[in-house]
Amino acid sequence: MFIPGSWQKSSYSGEGDGNACLEIASSPTRTAVRDSKAPALAALTFPTASFTAFVDALKDTGPRDPQE
């Protein structure tokens, strides 16, 4: 279980109700991901090392052109 208040939303998401964003909470062994618009619903959890590798891979590939 993750402590309320330990959830973090991306600084890229901005402010307001119209922003669809994910929130994460981390422990030494697990990282949880949830929908910021529905925080009471279940979160997905991943091993922290796997989630970190996933995020690093996204950073390495950069943004994609949505027209492709």
Automatic annotation (TrEMBL):
Domain DUF397 positions: 6-59
Lineage, opening ranks: Bacteria, Bacillati, Actinomycetota, Actinomycetes, Kitasatosporales
Organism name: Streptomyces griseoaurantiacus
Pfam families: DUF397
UniProt-recorded name of the protein: DUF397 domain-containing protein
